Amino acid sequence: MIIQYETEHYVFNFIKGSLAEKDIWDIACTQEMCFNKICRILKTVYPRKISYWFYSSPEVLGKYLCDDNPCNGLSITDDVCDDIGTKVSLDGSEENSFVVPPYSIHAVYEEKIKCIGAHEDTHMIAAEINEPSSDFLCEGLAMFMEGKWWGKPNKYWVEQFAKDNICPKPSELIDIPADEFWNIETRISYPLAGAWVELFIAEYGIDKFLNVYSQRSEYVKTIEKEIENSIERIDERFFDWVSVPDLT
Predict the structure, then answer these.
(1) Rounded mean pLDDT of the chain?
(2) Is 115:198 a contact under the CB 8 Å cutoff?
(3) pLDDT tens, 76-114?
(4) Mapping DSSP to helix (H, G, I), strand (E, B) and coil, where does residue 14 land?
(5) Hey, which of 33, 87, 123, 243 would disulfide with 75, CB 3.0 to 4.6 Å?
(6) Alpha carbon of residue 74 to chain centroid
(7) Please, where are the H alpha helices in 103-175?
(8) Is the pTM of this model over 0.85?
(9) Residue 22 backbone zone (phi > 0: left; psi -120 to 50: alpha; other: beta)
(10) Nearest residue to 203 via CA among 162, 225, 234
């Protein structure tokens, strides 16, 4: 049986008796804090409540919405996605099935995987501004808001990748096609993009970042115009920054 818990900005949907039901107060508090943080940083107002659906496992979610590939979470940021109207289930049973609505987040919540936090919510809220063709920028913004990857700051991982000589230059990933971006291991691309967005916003401000994010293409060209410098200069500054360990 699917039950709901509604807050100011969310409608949470989960199976009665599930871990999500047990933890729903903490989940709701976490997401409301994330929502307010994201809207404040992006200087935007999200016009509707976000519909959240908690699944029993990555395999169940992946079966229905990820071409049978295990998935921890995804967001449907519009009302035209092909998945809208698809009949799915939170645990594979008919009893807990429903039809996928627009503007919804689908996430796994179980003992080992608790897919909550700022990541998918960032995709949802930022889509009101734009949905860039650059997956580097989309995932970078989400990872910036999340702040960490596997429990450590994004910057920490990039420092390790740089030491191991497996870290691409961010400038080479900004304008690449989606299939090329997703061919890179997410353990590298996600924290790399998140750390790059963190530095860009710290150095040049959120307004310049949003000017870039609002474009449809040619992001490197827009970046160079915004910063009045070459993209290679940001690469240099970026690797200088990640090479200096944080004091905390």
Answers:
(1) 95
(2) no
(3) 999 888 999 999 999 999 999 999 999 999 999 999 999
(4) strand
(5) 123
(6) 8
(7) 119-126, 135-146, 154-163
(8) yes
(9) alpha
(10) 234
